[in-house]
Each structure stands twice: as C-alpha cells, then as structure tokens.
Design goal:
The chain is α+β, with helices and mostly antiparallel strands. The protein has ten helices and ten strands. A four-stranded antiparallel sheet has the order 2-6-4-5. It is globular, with a radius of gyration of 18 Å.
Length: 240
C-alpha cells in the first residue's frame, strides 16, 4: 500500500493559495521514489515536475567520462524539473533519488498550463529556482575548498534536516558520486567520523550518534545552506 501523503506535505505546494491548490490537486499523481532511482538523465526531455513529500532527489552534473558530482538537492521544500517552467525541455544534469520516499508529480503539459493560470505558483517556482542556484554555488565552493570529511558532514547534516530520525541508507558508490570523489575517499572519511564517535557506518547504513560532533566537524557551508533552506519557502501549516 502506498504511504499516505498530502500535497501540502510539500512545503512549496503548501504555500499555494487554497483555491489554486484545490484546482491543482486532481492533476497531481502520488508516486513512490526508491533509493538510486534515476528521475531523469542528461539531455533527456523531462516529462514531469516532482514535488517530494518525503523523498530527496539529488541533481548531478555529469562529465563526458561519466564522472558526476551533486550540484544541488531537493526535498520536501521544493520541486524537481525546473526546465519545464523555465522555458526549456532538458538539462545537462541528471537527477537521482538519494532518500526513498514519496512525491507528487505533475505532467509537463499540465504543469505549463497551471503555471500560466496560477501567478502565485509561478512566483513560488521562480523563487525556489533562485534558491537552487544559490545552493549550487555554495556546494561547488564546498567541494572545491573543503576536505572530504567536511563535505561528508555537510551532506549528512543537510540530509538529516530533511529526514525523520537519525538513520540514513546510502551506498558508498552513490555517496561518492554525490560528493564527486573516489569510493576509497568516502570509506576513509566515514571511518574517521566513526572513530570519532559521530556516526556508525555499516553496509550502506549510517546512524548519526553525535550530531553536535558533525556540526563541529563540518565547514561553514552547512550553516549557509541551512539559512538558504529556511528562507526559500516559509514553513506553512498543512491545510488538511
């Protein structure tokens, strides 16, 4: 049975005026998203907007050699599929699910029609796109100037902020592609954090045991990203 979720569980949708949301809701399709699922690939026409409610999706830049690194990520605060409402068709990025969960998707044609009809939705989507650009710049600087341990701490903390509980499921291969480093570098950084008592790491399962330790270990990029998430879409009480 598909987990229960409401459109208003997505913070972006929760800020759409109620009358507009009621018109939009019948067009939304609730879907399950699984860890490692490829939502879209580079230069592939995007067919849907995705509004995560509990899933997290990572956008990656992919090189010609196949190497990749995360440029930004989207959880319940946002939407995946910006080219649809920015006038494009595809992007050079790929999108992969980094936390399994639920999302509402909106077909491309319906999305463009609703965005033309609903000015508040258009404004919300454009504001969120601005936030994604800021996130992309911050992550690029973080990956360039900070250690693997610091960037791993930053990723763990931002993922925890969008999750329930302190346990995460993540393969080393996927985590290496997110941070744009070798798998061996992830292994070394994870063992270092485990030896410090901040996490327990075993067979793709990460349990954060000392969040304060991770916050002390990470770089200033985590605080900058957290501020951006907080100001992107204001917290809004779900309207049931």
């Amino acid at each position: 049975m598909m987990a229960r979720a409401l459109p208003s569980d997505n913070r972006l949708l929760s800020t759409v005026p109620l009358d507009d949301l009621q018109l939009l809701t019948p067009l939304l399709q609730l879907v399950a998203m699984t860890l490692g699922e490829m939502v879209f690939e580079p230069d592939q026409a995007q067919q849907f907007l995705y509004f995560p409610t509990s899933a997290i999706v990572s956008l990656h830049y992919v090189t010609e050699s196949g190497a990749s690194a995360e440029s930004c990520s989207v959880g319940s605060e946002g939407v995946v599929g910006a080219p649809i409402f920015m006038g494009g068709v595809s992007t050079s990025s790929s999108a992969v699910v980094t936390r399994s969960g639920m999302a509402y998707r909106l077909p491309q044609q319906a999305a463009r029609s609703e965005i033309r009809r609903c000015a508040p939705l258009q404004r919300i989507l454009l504001r969120h796109t601005s936030s994604l650009i800021a996130q992309t710049i911050q992550i690029a600087a973080c990956n360039r100037f900070h250690s693997v341990s610091q960037t791993l701490c930053r990723w763990l903390l931002t993922t925890l902020d969008r999750s329930a509980g302190a346990a995460l499921v993540m393969t080393q291969e996927l985590l290496a592609s997110i941070l744009g480093v070798r798998r061996e570098s992830i292994t070394g950084a994870a063992l270092r954090l485990q030896d410090a008592g901040y996490i327990r790491y075993r067979r793709g399962h990460i349990l954060v045991t000392d969040r304060a330790g991770l916050e002390a270990e990470t770089c200033e990029c985590y605080s900058a990203l957290r501020r951006e998430f907080a100001t992107d879409i204001p917290a809004h009480a779900p309207r049931h």
